Fold Glutaredoxin-2, mitochondrial.
Amino acid sequence: MSWWRAALSGTRLIRRGSGSARQLGRAAGAAASGMGNSTSSSLGTSATAPVNQIQETISDNCVVIFSKTSCSYCTMAKKLFHDMNVNYKVVELDMLEHGSQFQDALYKMTGERTVPRIFVNGTFIGGATDTHRLHKEGKLLPLVHQCYLKKSKRKEFQ
Ligand SMILES: N[C@@H](CCC(=O)N[C@@H](CS)C(=O)NCC(=O)O)C(=O)O
Ligand code: FES
């Protein structure tokens, strides 16, 4: 099933970044972002409230971009992580049947219902402009590295 068909049918509502981002992720970003796995999230299963589904997604994935396919700000944000060789998870809200409910939930969680809404290491870091600013200030990659540190610590104690 193609990702968008899955998204529309509600079986698998999250897809990875572009294929090449995935490739790069395996080489470098996977280690850097702690996202080398390919778990699919339960986001979109109707039994759970959108806020909880978002919480689960952002705690399972180092970088999560809530996006719309038609939005060039979103494309820019994806390109930023791609160019940093950081793997990321994208949730295309315009491909979700209840996308606007997720936008409402994001509003509750972040104070805005605009896209993109970007989370790193479980924390909201802002929209496209904020994220580019963090990158320019040299603060974005250290945030991503936090996921890796957390993950290697977990391994240590297993
Ligand atoms: N400064 C914000 C601008 C975000 C923004 O205005 N997003 C528009 C699309 S570009 C939006 O979400 N509009 C409402 C919607 O699509 O529901 C950012 O950089 O993320
Ligand atoms: S840039 Fe136009 S919808 Fe985001």
